[in-house]
Amino acid sequence: MLSSQRVRLANLSPKISSLGAAGARLKHTLPDLPYDYNALEPVISNEIMQIHHQKHHQTYVDNLNATEEKLAAAVAENNLSQVIALQPALKFNGGGHINHSIFWEILSPNGGGTPTGDLLELIKKDFGSFDNMKEELTQASVGIQGSGWGWLGYSKNGRLKIVTCANQDPLQPTTGYFPLFGIDVWEHAYYLQYKNVRPDYVKAIFQVANWEKVGERLANAR
Fold it and tell me: Might you give the EC number(s) for this enzyme (predicted)?
């Protein structure tokens, strides 16, 4: 049993060693918001934005750094069992950091309206119209059981698709789709303002959608 474990660790060692080294070298930090906490009112309140950013996102960052430190130690000790045991925490907190870092950028106090350019043309091609895409993304996001994210994703074959992810699962590693626009439907994202009426929050968030940034993300994905 120990012999087979050593073989598996030897096969994994180049990957996990580089991951552990990266965790030891780098510390993730909470990104600054590109606007003030009250800038998205009345769609998202000042209080929600402060708690969401300073408390929830900061917790994902702190836990991600702590998990990577433990991972580096496990790699250094050739402890394969611990390396495997740390993967759920790495995925959850790493996903939380990735998802929220995208979320802040794709919202704007000057947002709303309709996409333009290549983004709009691709939306029309794959959904028929912008309104159809909004409706499909709204229904998918509202329909998530428990906590998660609704995403407009871009695939390697050049198509757009509405995809949902549970909890903090990051879209691209989980589904292969590049995240363009996402809606956080964890209760901490809306409950203080919208209570249990998730549909109102999801519909309102399109009023602050930063379609210019989403268009930039599409260009980068291509």
Answer: 1.15.1.1
